[in-house]
């Protein structure tokens, strides 16, 4: 029954898009419809990723989920760059890394995990944070979006992309075999990939509508642009991916669920961040990788804490609660942080 309702609820996606294009509804209505539409999309991403992993193995399945799940993040970032909102872009990217390592991983950690693979990826996130200090520190004084910082950002961005490609290639080659034979009733690989792609496209459209409706709602609620970007936009941009990982965890496939959460953080830090920066060179106001101290500090704390939790290869329920609580503390801190001057 629940599956039938979720399949039917997928109709909310074209309904939301059509309503946004054909009429002029209130932002409250668009927010409600968009949020509701993301729920079945999250389920479809999780469902298709699970079926894909039965053919490819957990590592590649997690990589595909992270790649498709982070596509809306890239799209939202490019829209924000076009609208000259660099602080929103940096905040949402930092928030994406943090929410995956704390909120999603915390919700999923209720059983044993693949310790070695996770520690490598968490180490890469920490490496990215350290490397981002190069363009960030000069941005703490003067205009953080000045052209000279955009030029300084190119080197770290290129290095992050190279490291990501090398480590991902090695990881896929060493863990490319399926973990088990596909079960009866599994989708074929082409069907699973098509469903994953379709869910990602729908998520991109719905996420953009939700972000636009959130801006006016946030202004009415008196929220800062920083809080909107690092918490709300970050969660919205990864809603389907987050939901998919949690749904997979509830089905007992903890290796895949934890791989998704950590793989997504690593991919954002080492692939999405530099990719968005390099693509922004085509715009009149390129994005600099000048992150605020609070963004770098919280990303570093998130990576260190997640590594401490999984280092023994056995993450317990209370440790997952610890990660979620830590994320809640950070959200409060974000809410008390003013916008960048």
N/C terminus separation: 52 Å
- Topology, number of strands: 0
CATH topology-level fold name: A middle domain of Talin 1
Work out the helix count. Answer: 14
- Report Rg: 19 Å
Low-confidence stretches: none
Q: What is the second-level CATH architecture?
A: Up-down Bundle
Estimate nothing, just give the exact number of structural domains: 1
Structure classification: mainly alpha
- In CATH, what is the homologous superfamily? NCX, central ion-binding region
Mean pLDDT: 83
A few lines on this structure:
The chain has 14 helices and no strands.
How are the secondary structure elements laid out?
Layout: H1 2-9, H2 12-22, H3 27-56, H4 58-82, H5 86-108, H6 115-131, H7 133-139, H8 147-174, H9 189-221, H10 225-237, H11 239-250, H12 254-279, H13 293-310, H14 317-336
Question: How would you describe the overall organization of this protein?
Answer:
- This protein has 341 residues and is mainly alpha-helical.
- The chain has one domain: NCX, central ion-binding region (A middle domain of Talin 1), CATH 1.20.1420.30.
- Helix content is 79%, strand content 0%.
- It contains 14 helices and no strands.
- It has helices spanning 2-9, 12-22, 27-56, 58-82, 86-108, 115-131, 133-139, 147-174, 189-221, 225-237, 239-250, 254-279, 293-310, 317-336.
- The radius of gyration is 19 Å and the shape is globular.
What key phrases describe this protein's structure?
341 residues, mainly alpha, A middle domain of Talin 1, 79% helix, globular
